[in-house]
Specification:
The chain is an alpha+beta fold. It is built from four helices and 14 strands. The strands form three sheets. Strands 2, 3, 4, 5, 6, 7, 10, 11, 13 and 14 form a ten-stranded mixed sheet that branches. Strands 1-12 form a two-stranded antiparallel sheet. This is RNA pseudouridine synthase 7.
Length: about 300
């Protein structure tokens, strides 16, 4: 500590310390599916981000894989939204990651997801070819389509997704989703565009939209890690101290608390099951909610037999 009139000398360093508690995540295990020489694949549980971002540093797939399995460095080949579960592929070297990147840029990869949607999804393959426009401030996407010849071109990025019903119980349907492109929330917003949104997707299932920044901050989870990290919004400290008490287990509290996450948050019924490349294929088991016997508690005959 020095006085305000102190003159910084050569080779001296000014340090700024800010303490936060990371947002907790659901306590599901990260299951290693395949551990090869240059590739590792895992089944990502919902609510855990893939890599450090925003308010997350330790509660990430990359962070947990390093802490619990000693696997580092890891290079994500693709990403999944925080609330989405399923297959994640990591390269163990920059060279292998670059090989995957080139295949992605050349459109040589096929991706498959399963979703549980509202209603009886139509039979046969359904294709949505509609631009997706992501609003970063609101944290949601919208579909933009052309209104015909002579009309203004739709904004957003070109996006295409193919869907096929696996089974239905009359109230919900399990749908196979094959995104041709990879836009933010593409599968979720394209399903909403068709009129069959993911059944537990609060962001798109109804017209009642509440921006994440205005949601409550009360949350209880099985796993919670604390860490110290730089912050770009120190002005929030006073407000956070008013809302949160001191954590008796933490020597650095009162803290800057995580904001913008509900206490009743759950994983989306959207799960990545397969990635296929020119000479490789990685798969992940179907989640419990996508079981043919678990849609409504009764056994149903599938329209499209699951491949794994």
């Amino acid at each position: 500590m020095v006085h305000a009139d102190y003159i910084v000398k050569s080779s001296q360093k000014i340090s700024h310390f800010l303490h936060r508690h990371e947002p907790p995540v659901l306590g599901g295990n990260i299951v290693i599916l395949q551990n090869e020489v240059d590739v590792v694949t895992v089944c990502k549980p919902a609510s855990v981000p893939v890599h450090p971002c925003g308010q997350y540093r330790k509660n990430t797939v990359v962070g947990i894989m390093e802490a619990e399995h000693g696997l580092t460095p890891l290079f994500p080949v693709h990403r999944l939204d925080r609330l989405v579960s399923g297959l994640l592929i990591f390269a163990k070297s920059a060279e292998r990651a670059e090989c995957f990147r080139q295949q992605i840029e050349a459109n040589l990869l096929q991706k498959e997801y399963v979703a549980k949607v509202v209603g009886v999804f139509p039979e046969g393959e359904q294709t949505v070819d509609a631009n997706v426009n992501f609003n970063a401030r609101e944290g949601r996407s919208t579909v933009e389509v052309s209104n015909g010849p002579g009309k203004a071109l739709p904004s957003g990025k070109q996006a295409c997704t193919k869907f096929q019903r696996i089974c239905t119980d009359g109230n919900h349907s399990i749908v196979l989703c094959k995104p041709v492109t990879g836009r933010t929330h593409q599968i979720r917003v394209h399903l909403k565009h068709l009129g069959y949104p993911i059944a537990n997707d609060e962001l798109y299932v109804s017209g009642d939209f509440c921006p994440r920044s205005s949601k409550g901050t009360s949350i209880h989870r099985e796993t919670s890690l604390a860490c110290s990290l730089p912050s770009s919004d120190p002005d929030n400290s006073a407000e956070a101290d008013l809302k949160f008490g001191i954590d008796p287990m933490c020597t650095n509290c009162p803290n800057l608390a995580p904001v913008g996450y509900d206490g009743d948050e759950e994983g989306l019924w959207l799960h990545c099951v397969r990635y296929t490349g020119p000479d490789w294929c990685y798969e992940c088991p179907y989640p419990e909610w996508a079981s043919l016997d678990n849609v409504s508690g009764k056994k149903m005959k599938p329209d499209v037999p699951p491949e794994n």
